[in-house]
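Researcher: We're teaching a course module on how sequence relates to structure. For the next exercise, students receive a sequence and then see the predicted structure as tokens, so they can try to spot secondary structure elements on their own. Here is the exercise chain.
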Amino acid sequence: LLVCAALADYTPKKSKGKISSGKEKLILEMTPTPKIISKLKIKDAALYLEKIYEKCKTSITKGQVLLTIAHTGDRNYIKWLNNLLYNVNNLHRANKFKEKEEIVQGIAIGLGIFGDESSFEHLLYIAMPYFSDKTQELAKKAIEKVTDNPAKISLDIILNNPDYETKVNALLFTIESNSPEEDKINTCKMTL
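Model: And here is the predicted structure for the students to work with:
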């Protein structure tokens, strides 16, 4: 294994003809392989990862690719991940979500890595008991990274979102959150 790892850092020089077998010694002249990894920009990988995601067959692989996209740090993908989760949530509400939750978990962790407030409402739905305990927990952890005061964002949802179920979920989440008591009370008052 060590020999293979060492050889991987080198490229054999071209030789004329075929390398004959059966000799007692084989001498290859090698040169160091150029290190292209350091020249690649990690953010540039997100575009290729998105294409890979579209071709993935299993939920586990899709979830891992989504997580890797977040690790690139390309903030242009926040909206893309939010849209994916929005679509998942809508399919779930209509009982048409057929994938396994690894996809949702990958999105939740990824949105937590980005920590952008625009993800709060999408994460809120998967933090409710519609999904497995693991998915709910990952969504709650992501929300903690998105905002340190869910009550304020929840209030905006309660006042502006026409969906009654979303309003109730926002209020319930606020009550259980680590938001300051004063903000929790204010959100409850405004809801009434």
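Model: If you want an answer key for the exercise: The two ends are 68 Å apart (CA to CA). The chain has ten helices and two strands.
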